[in-house]
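Hi R.,

Here are the chain sequences for the assembly we discussed:
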Amino acid sequence: MGRTLMASLWLQAFKRAERAVGDPLERLAQSPAAIEAMIRTAALRRDVELRAERVLRFYLHLFNMPALTDVRRLSQQVAHLERRVREISREADTPPPGDGLHRETRRRDRSA
Amino acid sequence: VIGPLELGGRAGDVVANVAARARNGVDYVRGADICDLCSTPLDDVWTSGKVRLRRVRNDNVTVKKPLLIVHSLISKPYIFDLLPGNSVLEWLRDHGHDAYLLDWGDTDETDVANDLATYVDDYLRPAVGAVRKVSGASEVALLGYCFGGVLALYALATDDRLPVRDVALVATPVDFQAIPALCRATVRSGLETGHMTDTTGNIPADVFRWAFRVLRPTNDLAAFATLLDRLHDREYVRNHHALNRWTDDQIPFPGALAREMLPVARENALLAGVGQVSGRPVNFEAVKGRVLAFMAMRDHLVPHPSAKAIIRLLPSADVETVEIDSGHVALFIGGRAKTETLPALHEWLTGDGKQAREEKRDGRATAPHP
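And here is the predicted structure of the full complex:
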């Protein structure tokens, strides 16, 4: 009993302190300046990744080796084909309306 | 005055407590076999690519209408089957439901072109058809969790022949302007999908993990302190471990869908009733039937006003709201789920306790729609 009470007391004190620190931190994290900084950081990270990948691809291609982006492009092409097959087979099935399988033909190009 | 017997008893308690804490602490750090994730037996009844429709094995179905659970796209669906005794699927099975789970699979580079039409028309609507076929029921009830609820709403608003009249929404964002961080990022700071995507073209899972942590920077610390306090409680440790594992186990978000949804968030187009799926315009005013919306009062991801806007979005539907004093995930996990969320869902689906709910609803002055 005594131990439980002690434990609860320390936890309550801890949580009060956590809120005292956490509330202003949350406000700060959601401030326009912080959000702006996070977006810039994310964009910078993406930029660095793209550049690194481009350099790596260049050297791999120099030795006639496939890069990850080549494999990725192939996978995406296969996925695109699968999607087209799904669409065509569903259009061919033409189930009766209202059974949850009915769909309209999608006219736009959705290539990967 | 403490007698020698009582003193011995207390000493024994302390030793047992310390031993339990040590054992649980070591197991937690090792992470070995401390939790038995996804233990409810499921059968795959329909697949399309990596998307699987999974039926909860149940020999004792007493609720006529099947329930299809539509999960969000940024996390894995085992949150619905976290642990024995703390599982939505297990609870639904034990209460006689014929439950189905739509598992989107792990998003990767092959899903980069998946857009709203893919998820609504290629997966969700056929899954509804498959549930009908497998169950033999004429109608299906939907349960959309978080973004899964948004997908369910788009499916309903673009197909008035979809055989769905009952939709339960759990922490589903409707008013994007009521999510302060998202609103600031999209409207004021000009957040674009290109800022977040990785070299595959998808938004990587760590962007979400990072964003959630930034929204509540001290949350992990507070959770860890509670864990330390309750380290002697094996059940609590198991639940904490399982939930932690799930929150760290997010999946990438498809790039094309993000490019489609970011303007929706920026212009608050869902609440405005503007949009289309495969060229079919949305018509939320035409959505009839019953909607039960669960919302958490302490939800920092989908704040309560954002979810509550469902009442304004669906003027022709019979919308009921259930407000629960919890956070985003606790709506469907832990004690509150078993005592509040799931019983309310069960009563709503079966029609039990309707009068009590109506009285409660009137008392809360939640606007019912004819």
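Residues 91 and 338 of chain B are 8 Å apart (CA to CA). The radius of gyration of chain B is 22 Å.

Let me know if anything looks off.

Best,
T.
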